[in-house]
Design goal:
Layout: H1 2-17, H2 21-35, H3 39-42, E1 46-48, H4 60-68, E2 72-79, E3 82-88, E4 94-96, E5 102-104, E6 117-120, E7 124-126, E8 131-132, H5 138-145, E9 151-155, E10 161-162, E11 176-178, E12 183-185
Parallel strand pairs: 1-2, 1-6, 6-9, 7-10, 9-11
Antiparallel strand pairs: 2-3, 4-5, 7-8, 11-12
């Protein structure tokens, strides 16, 4: 099963690389437009984002808009090899962390139980809500610690959604997937 995940990870990283910058920007904006209309987003106050890398759905506008809207915004910071949820006041307070990803420079850690909504990155997602990440396990470990009430939304370009990916019993499913073309609500 691990070999199949590695193959999918490699193939979908390549697919994502082929999305040009202007399409990535347009698709990211379409994803944001869908999110800002969702009650599940509008009714939550404490939201955790990821800071997007070059080929991911761009979250910077989402983060800035959420801060302006008065939401409590959290980003992950790697501390002792694990993701830690840190509250931020703006993007200007971020510094480059491991893997070249910007993260909070402060350490105002937020209790996991306070996170109402989390946006999750991935290389590929399936229509049942399972994801394949980058293979380091940071998000898998982090998601397993969250309250079952925390809404998990996977962000992806439409090219990153497939029918089914291999998964283990312990893999955490997303509750919702948002792409530039659709919003997929996951049900059992």
């Amino acid at each position: 099963m691990q070999k199949n995940k590695e193959i999918l990870r490699k193939v979908y990283k390549e697919i994502r690389l082929k999305i040009n910058k202007s399409d990535k920007k347009r698709k990211s904006l379409e994803i944001w437009r869908k999110i800002e209309k969702m009650d599940i987003y509008n009714n939550k106050k404490t939201i955790m984002f990821y800071y997007s890398k070059e080929n991911e759905v761009d979250t910077r506008l989402m983060i800035e808009k959420s801060i302006k809207d008065g939401k409590r915004v959290i980003l992950p910071k790697i501390i002792n090899g694990e993701l830690s949820p840190i509250q931020i006041e703006g993007l200007d307070s971020l510094r480059e962390g491991p893997y070249g990803i910007k993260e909070p420079s402060n350490a105002r850690k937020v209790d996991l139980s306070e996170i109402e909504l989390i946006f999750v990155p991935g290389v590929v997602f399936d229509k049942k809500g399972y994801r394949i990440g980058y293979g380091k396990g940071y998000y898998d470990r982090f998601l397993s610690k969250l309250s079952s009430n925390t809404v998990k939304i996977g962000l992806a370009f439409s090219e990153q959604i497939i029918e089914q990916i291999p998964h283990e019993d312990w893999d955490i499913r997303m509750d919702i997937l948002v792409t530039d073309k659709e919003v997929i609500y996951i049900s059992d």
